[in-house]
């Protein structure tokens, strides 16, 4: 029975219906399941806890303490006994123990920052930190959408190429069967049949290579979606259209997520610099404590004065002022390091803006070139199809050679592949253009 189950497992997997995916479905699935998107959401959630941690520095800290001490040997202190009233003049120096064998203390301590510039700066930076992670999560979503869209279009184009090869294989098989019948009837040469068989094998080899390429590309798509690699998928039948694209207006690069993320990072670095500068400021804090102490020659817990154990309370309130004076120029060095980090962030902003403008211009150029290529290749496919049909008819009537027929087939396959490749280039450039305009989420509506 176990052997039967193992043998049937591949068949059962093969019978699982393929999940049909539109581009919208693929993107929505990725945003919910891809590890990058999920981790970005966790980072936003974690930023709330980071804010709570910073806020705790401005709130009072309360702690309880307790101790139990046993002194097996009490320290002796040297005292001039003759100085005590009524003591004889020759009393001299006496060694007298201070304290008792046992002591126990329990109490509560409170500490509250009254003025600490670093804490105030940290509270301001906490809000920016949360905004930084929110922008980063948005950027991660855009990256996920871009990767899914690119791989989705590549799967579709390769499937189109596979369809062309399969149709060509079917047509070539029909022609081969006709030549085979003619050869068996003595109306065709064996070399013509052999050439058709070779051509058929070559086309089938291309078909197997494309099948493998489609499978690999589908696996990549499922990986970028966060989907199990074993899940079968299918793409709905659709036709790529040359959608109108606005190429006249140059988008504002400062509104792009990448730029906004660096801008927020610059803001955080500025707060970091202010936090270091805050080390020059004095700090003021308040501390208070209340304690209860028991002392005696016996174990103090649960003991009474009758046992020689006495309990008393004591309390203190302290105002602490710390004024930094000199620390070996350490603070100055850290301030200058923070200033350099801030200047590097400003350079990154300038370079990123240039890179975003470059990406938009390149996408525009690629789209214009793709439109020209698609238009010409579409006409070329139509012409190649007509040439192939006419050559097949002429060959059946003996007006064309087998070489003409094979050349026409190869030209048609090449024209179809060039056309689908141009479509892919257009769609990939369109994704880059949409990205350059900061509108990647609009792909969910397609």
TrEMBL record:
A molecular-function term among this protein's GO annotations: porin activity
Main location: membrane
Coiled-coil regions listed in the entry: 335-394
Keyword Membrane carried by entry: yes
One Pfam family matching this protein: OEP
Source organism, top-level taxon: Bacteria
Example of a GO cellular component annotation carried by this entry: efflux pump complex
Locations listed in the record: Cell outer membrane
UniProt xrefs under InterPro entries: OMP_efflux, TolC-like
Keyword Transport set for record: yes
Keywords linked to the UniProt accession: Cell outer membrane, Coiled coil, Membrane, Transmembrane, Transmembrane beta strand, Transport
UniProt similarity note: Belongs to the outer membrane factor (OMF) (TC 1.B.17) family.
PANTHER family per record: OUTER MEMBRANE PROTEIN TOLC
Protein's recorded name: Transporter
